[in-house]
Design goal:
The protein has 284 residues and is mainly beta. The protein is built from 3 helices and 19 strands.
């Protein structure tokens, strides 16, 4: 009887451990970075057509990686998934607001420490198992810059679609992604674009002591720090001026004189460390 009870206990513990690991990949690592995938789902439910997940990275002290628009140096992270994954139709990677870094005389944008990138994975066959076979390719820098390639695999079986223990982490990661809608605390009220600058009217209920602004024109991020002209009568409102350097202007000089940066997308991201919003302007 004791042997039967012991066997049952071992089976139960083993089963629970397998279930706990089913919603996450093993850590992949180099000396500079660790990475893994966390899934919001223990299994794929009937008719489930998408998987919510997170790419979690952990950088060694003093190392940093890059944002989707790295600035004056660096490369953005990307996930290669098409070759070996199964039952994945598309994958999109979202980026939390970055930090500013100085590399010699260059300004770059990226991350240090722990970072969580939300993943939206659409399935080819709803309700069917998913095999994720990813390669994370990115660049990390300290005194030198190095390319990093980390393989990551995760299998999610078909089942009842139960939530995993990682769901709160994944929800929190999504909350850190800049909102495209106005919020009661933080708003981009207006954006004006000329050939040599971008001017934004911003409302921040918390003031501007910790506020930063990142502006992208096409694939280029403006390197200058924002100039905040705070309303003396209302400290929650500011005009933010960002100059466009000549080399970026020159990249778009063939667009014609009618509309500056015509045919390109300009993205304005505002963050105060706690909340973040963004506005996308299509220069049609």
């Amino acid at each position: 009887m004791k042997k039967i009870i012991l066997f049952a206990a071992i089976f139960l513990i083993s089963h629970q451990a397998t279930g706990a690991l089913a919603a996450q990949s093993a850590w992949g690592s180099t000396a500079e970075m660790q990475a893994r995938i966390l899934s919001a789902h223990e299994t794929i439910g009937p008719d489930q057509s998408a998987v919510q997940a997170v790419l979690q990275t952990r950088l060694a002290p003093d190392w940093h990686s890059y944002w989707r628009s790295p600035g004056e140096a660096g490369l953005p992270p990307k996930i290669l998934w098409e070759e070996k994954s199964d039952n994945i139709a598309s994958l999109s990677l979202s980026f939390p607001p970055p930090k500013r870094f100085k590399e010699l005389d260059l300004t770059t944008f990226g991350y240090d420490g722990d970072v969580a990138y939300p993943l939206d994975i659409q399935l080819n066959n709803p309700g069917q198992p998913v095999h994720m076979d990813f390669i994370l390719e990115t660049m990390v820098c300290r005194d030198i810059c190095l390319p990093v390639s980390i393989p990551l695999t995760l299998d999610i079986d078909a089942g009842n679609g139960a939530d995993s223990k990682h769901l709160p982490v994944i929800k929190y990661a999504h909350e850190k992604i800049p909102s495209s809608a106005e919020t009661p605390r933080l708003k981009i009220e207006n954006v004006t674009i000329t050939q040599d600058r971008v001017v934004a009217n911003v409302f921040n209920k918390r003031g501007f002591d910790r506020t930063d602004v990142f502006i992208e024109i096409g694939e280029f991020a403006l390197p200058a720090a924002p100039d905040f002209q705070i309303n003396e009568n209302d400290k929650t409102h500011a005009i933010v001026v960002m100059p466009i350097p000549q080399d970026i202007q020159d990249e778009f000089k063939n667009n014609g004189p009618d509309i500056a940066y015509q045919g390109h997308t300009i993205r304005v991201t505002v963050t105060d460390g706690r909340f973040a919003v963004e506005q996308v302007i299509d220069m049609d």
